[in-house]
Design a protein that fits this description.
3 strands, 10% strand, Alpha-Beta Plaits, 3 helices, alpha+beta
Length: 114
């Protein structure tokens, strides 16, 4: 079993990725050629948000996806948050440097909805 998002392999019996929280698949799709990702840039900027609940995080993910901003959610599991020192469970996300300002604006709007 494989996670289609982070491509980690799991033993039989697991049904969901513990990091990405997506259903596992029996086979991975081939990775897209590098030229398909041209212009996206590396996900080289780490933003620690004040989003921590599942509703706020879900909204933030949806808004980033809707804006077409590539991102990688960090510290999705409790163990990973503890290892990185993120004990409060704030949502950390990596975005490309060229989309940082736009991502920060979106994430700030979600944080202000408290």
């Amino acid at each position: 079993m494989f996670c289609p998002q982070c491509r980690v392999e799991y033993r039989e019996g697991f049904v969901e990725c513990s990091d990405c929280h997506v259903p596992l698949t029996a086979h991975l799709q081939p990775e897209a050629p590098a030229e398909d990702h041209a212009g996206e840039g590396d996900l080289d900027v780490l933003i620690r948000t004040a989003c921590w609940g599942p509703i706020a995080i879900g909204l933030a993910k949806s808004l980033l996806e809707e804006a077409g901003i590539p991102f990688f959610a960090m510290d999705q599991s409790i163990a990973a948050r503890q290892e990185s020192g993120n004990f409060l469970g704030w949502w950390d996300v990596r975005v490309p440097r060229d989309r940082e300002a736009e991502a920060r604006q979106i994430l700030r709007s979600v944080e202000e909805m408290k």
